[in-house]
Design brief:
82 residues; TATA-Binding Protein; five-stranded antiparallel beta sheet; 39% strand
Length: 82
C-alpha cells in the first residue's frame, strides 16, 4: 500500500526540514533526511518525502488499517507546512 500527496510551503527548504525534524522529535517520530529527501516513521506510519521547489511530495509506505490517509495528511501538514 503506497499513497502519495503533496504539501506546498513557503520559505527555505532547509528551514522547513529543520522545523519538521524538531516537530518529529517532540512527537517521538524518527525523521532522517535533508532539504532534498528523507524518511520518517512513528506510531505505525512510515513513509518518505522529496522536496522540489516549494512542494513536498510525501509517500506513505505503511500505516495501520484504522488510520485514514486524511488523518496522516493532516498530521504531516503540521510537520511540513508553514
Amino acid at each position: 500500500m503506497r499513497e502519495s500527496f503533496t504539501i506546498s510551503f513557503q520559505g527555505d527548504p532547509v528551514t522547513l526540514v529543520n522545523r519538521a525534524k524538531q516537530t518529529a522529535v517532540q512527537n517521538h517520530v524518527q525523521f532522517d533526511g535533508d532539504e532534498h529527501s528523507g524518511n520518517f516513521s512513528g506510531d505505525g506510519v512510515a513513509g518518505t518525502y522529496t522536496v522540489q521547489g516549494h512542494t513536498v511530495t510525501v509517500t506513505i509506505n505503511r500505516k495501520p488499517f484504522y488510520v485514514t490517509m486524511a488523518m496522516i495528511q493532516n498530521q504531516l501538514q503540521q510537520f511540513f507546512a508553514s
